Amino acid sequence: MYTSTKSRNVLVIVPSTRPGRRGPVVSDWFTSSVAGRASELQVRCTVADLAEIGLPFLDEPEEPSTGRYVHEHTRRWSELVEGSDAFVVCTPEYNHAMPAALKNAFDALSAEWAHKPVAFVSYGNTSAGTRAAQMAKSVAVTLGMVPVSATVNLRIADSFAGEGLVADPRRDASAVRILDELHELAGLLDALRVPGRTRVDGAGPAGLTIAPARDVDAGELLVLQRCCWVDEALANTTLDIHALHEPLDVVLRGIREQATWVVRDGARIVGAVRAQSRGTTWEIGRLMVAPDHRGRGLGRYLLSWAENQAPKGTERFELFTGAMSTRNLRLYGRAGYHHESTSAGVAHLVKAVARGTEPVAA
């Protein structure tokens, strides 16, 4: 059995939005029933009531798979879902189906749902909401979520009394089993999720994220690297540039041996930078931005990000670029780097860490 001391966030979604709905009663029952076990597992349950969130029907101009959201309500929903490790959907059944608000909430996002476990607590009349849960489950699977086997299905005539639920210790125990399965499966799925992903603020289009590179990124990094260094070859009138000719195994070795970060626009890698420590020097390299994302501050962001990842005790930053790479030289000059030397057409630039300050890893 998987065990972990990592705390988890479980989002309990209430999709019913009509007046007189039973959804809050069901979500309150679930969170109270699992409260003790949640404390033991270091699980935080947060209720997301779609009636209060007020997410409009899909109104983003671009596909959710791009991760580029122009509306604040979508960004808030994205942050809430992205920050969750697992989901419990307390859904009613309407005409043999899930509520439209739930389908809309699913459809508004994409990558934020992937590789996370989901459980369904359904309620209804004849079928106890099972047809709604089955429909919702098929959508969840399409989005990359993994349903757990434990579930609770409430038949309204048997389970509800007035404005509350009829006490049922067996049902309470089922809620705890749901939480246990969610917690265990969330741990097992961690390897499939992008660890340490952070939103890029103030550079490039909305929706960019930065995260440590993984082995599976090597192929896409190789393509981006060759694309970017073609411009360097043209600027410096030479094809004798290591980054332009590195094979895949060398790019992969760079990911494994140096701290490397990639910026994604949705699923696509559009920027990267890497760094390594040599004594008290933090050497920054392979800073690249896809041509269609240049001119909007992403290069400055990546440079600043790399500097902030330097270990304690770093006294200076160091990097290299082509002696004729005027765009790069301008960027680094504005960031406080000065020219140390030039050799074989390569400019060596350095920047001292200001006294009284030191880099702090983000």
Summarize the structure.
This protein has 362 residues and is α/β, with parallel strands linked by helices.
Description of the structure:
The structure is a single chain. Helix content is 36%, strand content 26%. By secondary structure, it is α/β, with parallel strands linked by helices. It has two domains: 8-192, Flavodoxin domain (Rossmann fold); 198-352, 3-Layer(aba) Sandwich (Aminopeptidase). The strands form three sheets. Strands 9-10-11-12-13-14-16-15 form an eight-stranded mixed beta sheet, sandwiched between helices. Strands 1, 2, 3, 4, 5 and 6 form a six-stranded parallel beta sheet that branches. A two-stranded antiparallel sheet has the order 7-8. Helix 9 (218-236) crosses helix 11. The two termini are 33 Å apart. The model has no long low-confidence stretch (mean pLDDT 91).
CATH class of the largest domain equals Alpha Beta
Strand order across the biggest sheet?
9-10-11-12-13-14-16-15
Based on CA inertia axes, which overall geometry fits? elongated
Distance between the termini: 33 Å
Q: Would you report the number of β strands?
A: 16
Helix content: 25-40%
Overall tally of structural domains: 2
Q: Structural class from helices and strands?
A: alpha/beta
CATH arch. level architecture of the largest domain: 3-Layer(aba) Sandwich
The largest β sheet comes out as: 8 strands, mixed
- Average pLDDT across residues? 91
Q: In percent terms, what proportion of residues is strand?
A: 25-35%
Total of helices:
13
Low-confidence stretches: none
Question: What is the H-and-E element order?
Answer: EHHEHHEHEHEEHEEHEEHHHEEEHEHEE
Return Rg in Å: 25 Å
CATH topology of the largest domain: Rossmann fold
CATH superfamily of the largest domain: Flavodoxin domain
